[in-house]
Amino acid sequence: MILTEAIIDAATLLQVPEITKGFSILALYGTNGFTHEHTEAIRELKELKEVVLFFDGDEAGTDATKQIAQELKQINDKLIISVVDTPEGEDVNSLSIGHEPEIFTHLLENRKQFSFSVETSNEKEKILQSISANTHQSTINSQLKVSPDYIFYETSELQITLWGGIELHQISRLRATLHIQLKSNIYAEFRDTVDLYSHSQTEKLIRQSSEKLEVSTTIVTHAITELTKELEKYRQQKREEKRQQEQEQQQQNKDIFTKEQIQPFRILHL
């Protein structure tokens, strides 16, 4: 099977008989357009042996190749995942305009198997850098924007609003009413109320929202995971602040009570 980055790319390849003889073709909806439907379609192909990623020859295409290769591996770890080396600045459709159809068979014949070992090493380094950066950032400023009526959180792709905030005193659950929006399309949105400490509810939220927004489940998973961590830190901070206030109030009341009790004693003593 060949995965293309866009529908027009898939339509272009379908016009090349030499390709359709040996491959089925499936289109994504852009670099972030690997949806739940794609996952299910690939999972149902029990005889599928290889998936060829034929994306644009640019940075976005390279990043999408790495991301989707990882997702395919999770769907079926026995799949052979290959990558077409698309010329820089080109895509499937532009290649069809500037070249003869033989360009596609040539590129496919020279495709290379995706190397997970190299990617894993690179990803580990990125994760360590990200953890270091996030740790520093969290110590100086929370990523949450808090108002009396809602809590706001955003990533590079998504905006998430928690209407009504969260419970501060109930720590065995993390119930929230979420409004998730795609930053690139304000009309792509999803709403639901879930307990973020419930695995089944969170999994359902990720699956349904990624399907509705037409984005990768990886993007939503990362956003919900990081949001949950931020909410935990925020709740713990507010609980600590309340404890301090209560202790200060108790101490103040104790001091006042002591002075009130001491005064009559001094009068009697005199």
Give an overview of the whole structure.
The chain is built from 9 helices and 10 strands. The protein is an alpha/beta fold and about 270 residues long. It has 2 domains: about 120 residues, Dna Topoisomerase Vi A Subunit, Chain: A, domain 2 (3-Layer(aba) Sandwich), CATH 3.40.1360; about 100 residues, no CATH class. Helix 8 crosses helix 9. The chain starts with a strand and ends with a helix. The relative contact order is 0.09. About 5% of the residues have low confidence.
Q: Brief overview, please?
A:
The chain folds into two domains: 2-116, Dna Topoisomerase Vi A Subunit, Chain: A, domain 2; 139-236, no CATH class. Helix content is 54%, strand content 18%. The protein has nine helices and ten strands.
Strand order of the largest sheet: 2-1-3-4-5
Q: How many structural domains are formed by the residues?
A: 2
For the record, the CATH class of the largest domain is Alpha Beta
Number of helices: 9
Taken in chain order, the helices and strands follow as: EHHEHEHEHHEHEEEEEHH
What's the overall average pLDDT, rounded?
A: 83
The name of the CATH architecture of the largest domain is 3-Layer(aba) Sandwich
DSSP strand content: 15-25%
CATH fold descriptor of the largest domain: Dna Topoisomerase Vi A Subunit, Chain: A, domain 2
Report the strand count: 10
Derived from helix and strand composition plus strand pairing, the structural class reads: alpha/beta
